[in-house]
Amino acid sequence: MDKLTGFTGYKTASNLDLYICKNPKFKTNLIELYLVHPLSREDASKTALLPYVLYRGSKKYPTSRDIERRLEELYGADLNVSVIKRGELQLIKFSLELVNEGFLPEKEPLLEEGLKLLYELVLNPLFEDKYVEQESEFLKKEIKSLVNDKYTYAIERCYQEMCKEEPFGIYKLGTLSGLEEITSEGLYQHYQKLIAQNQIYLLVVGAVDEKSLQERINEIFTFEHQQPGNFNQTRVRTGVDKVKEVVESLNVQQGKLSLGFRTGITRNSSQYYALMFYNGLLGAFPHSKLFQNVREKASLAYYANSRLESTKGLMQITSGIESINYDRAKEIILEQVDKLAQGEFNDDEFDWTRKALINHLKSSADNNRGLTGHYLLGLINGKPESIREMITELEKVKRDEIIEVARRIELDTIYFLDKK
Amino acid sequence: MDKIYNDTIKETLYKEILDNGLKVYMMPRQNYNRQYAIFATNYGSIDNSFIDPETGNTVTVPDGIAHFLEHKLFEGEEENTFSQFARLGTSTNAFTNFTTTAYLFSGTGNFQQSLVNLLDFVQNPYFTDENVEKEKGIITQEIRMYEDDPNYQAFFNLLQGLYHYHPVRIDIGGTVESIKKITREDLYLCYNTFYHPGNMILFLVGDFDPEETINLVKENQARKDFPEWKGIKRVFPDEPPAIKENKIEKQMDVNQPLLMLGFKERELDKTERELVKQEIGTDMLLDLITGKGTELYQSLYEDGLVDDDFDQHYTRERGYGYAIMGGKTKDPEKLYDRLLAGIKKAKDNLKEEDFSRVCKKYVGDYIESFNSFEIIAHEFVDYFFKGINYFEVIKIIQEIDLAYLAERFDQLFKEKSAVRSVISRG
C-alpha cells in the first residue's frame, strides 16, 4: 500500500480545478476551497473582507447562528474561514472537516451535506449591508491587533520593511484606509468578478469514492465560471544594494530580531530542493546551526530559526533575545550564514538534515492539512508535486549545489523590535 | 498483553504493566507512515511540595523546577539528546504543564532505536553545576517570551485571582528570579521522587508491531534498577472555596484589550469517573451558554464586544477546577456585565434540542481526535493520569444528560464566584 498518497486532478462541470486525495487512514473528510487573487493595494482589503461577510449568512442559513447550529448538527463539523498570502497572491480559504460517515452511530450523508453547506456559503450569500459594515469594523480591529502577538508581528514587520515597494509588502488582511473606501455594492461586484473568473481550487482528502464524489460536486457546485490563465504574477527580486536596518521600540520584555533575505529561488526552480537543504542546515531543526549556536552554545535565546517563503523567494531568520545582546546575537547569526556560504558543514549535518527533511515530508502525508498545504504550494507555483516526488528530488541533492545556493542568498533587511 | 477494541473508532489498544510499575499502552496504526511515542510522568508544576522519600521531611522546591528538569533531561554525558535523534532522522521534544511532564519523539523509521533512546535519556539524568547554569539564560528568554504574550498573562492573572494558595496559581516556568535559585541537588531530588516507572506511562501510536515493541521495552526496563515503588506523598495547601480577588488588571502594549472571566470549582470531592464526567459535562454546559451557536454569543458579536476568537472551556484536575471564557474586546467592563447577565438567564434556556446538537458535536470531535497522533497521545496521557482510559471517554459523553448540566449550572455559577482578568492598553 502506498502510504504517501498523492492527489489526482479533475475538472468539474463548472470548470473548477478539483484535486482528490483518496486516503483510507483518516477518520474525517477534509474539503478545502481556495479563491485566488493577485495581491494589490487596490483590492487587498476587499478580498480580505469578503470571506468574513460570506460567513455571516447565506440565503438558506441567514445568520451566523444558523450556520453554527448547522455545523453542530453535522457532528461538530469544523469550518475555518481565513485569508492567507503566498507570494504576491492573496488566497481566500474555506476549510471544512467532517467526520467520515462510516464512524457514525446512525448513517447520515455527512460529506454531501458538507458540500451543500460550503456551496451555500460561497455561492449563495446573503450579503446584507449590516454584515459588510460589522465585518469591516472587525477587520479593522484585527489589523490593528497584529501587535498583540509580538512573534508574528516581528516577522510581518520585517517583510513589510523589506518589500515596501513590492506587492508582497501588503499585509494579508489589507489596510485600514483600504477598508474605509469599501461600499457594499463595490464589494459585491468584486465578489461576482472573483467567483466568475478567478482561479478556484477545490481539494478533498479522505476515505472517499472519487467517482461519486465528482458526481456530487458536479450536482451541487453549479455556477458560471472561467478559470484564468497565468494568475501568479509574483515578481522575484534579487540584487540588494544596501542592507536596511530598522529598529522599532515597544513596551516589551523581550526583543525580537528578524533578518530578511532574498533567495531568488521559488518552488518551481530546480534549485528549490537544495534551498530546502540549506534552510534545514541553517535553522529548521534542533541540530541546525542557529539552534546549536545561538541557543545551545551562547544561551542567548529560547528560539532561533529560519523559514522559507517559497513563492516569492525569501527567507527569514527570527530569534527572541535580551535587547542588550543585539550585537552579539546578530553577529552569531550572520556567522552561521557565512559558514554555509563557505561550505562549512560536515557529513553529519548533511546526513541529519536530509533525514529530517524526509521525515518531515513523510509525516505531512499522515496529516490531511499537511497534504493540502503541500500540494497547494505546488499548484500556485505551477509545479504540482507529490510528496514522493519531492523526496526523490531531495535524495539527489549534492553538497556543491547547497553551497551554490548559499552563495546566492542575500541579506536585505535587519528588523529589531526593541524594548522601550 | 491485554487487547481492548473500541467499536466507535474501530481501533485496538494493547496494554501491559511491567514489573517495575511502568504502564505501556500501544495503538498500532499500520496505514500511517509515522510512529509517535510519549513517555510521561505524573509530575507537573503544581507538585512543588512533597515528602522527601530519603528523609521523610516536607520540602518545597523553587517555582518552575518541573519545567527546568524537563529541559535538563536532554543533557547527556556523551552526545546530546537532540543529536542522538537527529542521527536517526527522528525528532524529539518535551512539554511541562500543571500536572504532567512528557517526553516524546516522532519519526517515520528507526522506531526501535528511537524508542530505546527515549527510555534511556529520560532514565539517565546527568546534571552538573555547569549545565544547570547554562540553561538559565535559555529559560529566562522562554519566560520573557511569555511575559509579552497577553493571553498567557491574562490566564495566569486569572488563576491568581481564583486561588489563594493552590500552586496552580504559579506560572509553569516559574519566574526569572525563582529559576536562579535552582541547583543540581534540587533537580536530583525532584527526579528521584517523581521519575519512578511506577509514576509513569509510555504511550505509542503508529506503524509498528506491538509484540516486538513490548518485548523491546521489557528488555530495556529489565536492565535498569529501580527502588521499590512506594508511591508519592504530595503536599497541597488548604484552599478555601472562595475566590481571592475579583478583578486583576495589567497594562501591556496591545492594541485591543482582553477579558478573561473565570469561575472556581467547589465540587472537588469526586471519584475518577465522576471527575471526568464533571469535566466534559461542564464543558458542554459552557458551549450551551456562550458557544458560537448561542443567542448570547451572537448578540455580543453583533454589538462588537467579542470576535471570532472568543472561547470558553472548563478544566478539571485532581484538587482544582475552573471555567474560563473570554477574548479580545473593545470594552472589558461592558463585556463582563453582559456575560454575567447572560449566564444568569442561561439556566432557563437549557433546552433538550440544543443539548442534543452539542452532544453530536462532542461525539464528532471525539472521533476526529483519532486522526492526529499528537492529540490521541496527549489526551490519552491526560486522561490516564486522571484514572480514565481515553477509549472509555465516549461512554462518559453518552452518559451525560441535560439534568446533569442543570445541576452543574447551580454548583458552578454561585454569587461572587467570578473573577475577571483584564489586559488593558498601556
Q: What would your notes on this structure say?
A:
The complex is a heterodimer of chains A (420) and B (426). Helix content of chain A is 43%, strand content 21%. With 420 residues, chain A is of the alpha+beta class. In chain A, α9 packs across α15. The longest helix of chain A has 18 residues. Chain A is globular, with a radius of gyration of 23 Å. The N and C termini of chain A lie far apart (58 Å). The mean pLDDT of chain A is 96. Chain B has 426 residues and is of the alpha+beta class. Chain B has 2 domains: 221 residues, 2-Layer Sandwich (Cytochrome Bc1 Complex, Chain A, domain 1), CATH 3.30.830; 179 residues, 2-Layer Sandwich (Cytochrome Bc1 Complex, Chain A, domain 1), CATH 3.30.830.10. Helix content of chain B is 42%, strand content 21%. Chain B has a 7-stranded mixed beta sheet, with helices on both faces. In chain B, strands 10-14-11-13-12 form a 5-stranded mixed beta sheet, sandwiched between helices. In chain B, a hairpin with a 5-residue loop joins β2 and β3. Chain B is globular, with a radius of gyration of 23 Å. The model of chain B has no long low-confidence stretch (mean pLDDT 96).
Write down the Rg of chain A.
23 Å
- Taking the alpha carbons of the first and last residues of chain A, their distance comes to 58 Å
- Which strand order do you get reading across the main beta sheet of chain B? 1-2-3-9-4-8-7
User: How is the biggest beta sheet of chain B arranged?
Assistant: 7 strands, mixed
Estimated structural class of chain B: alpha+beta
Order of helices and strands of chain A: EEEHHEEHHHHHEHEEHHEEHHHHHE
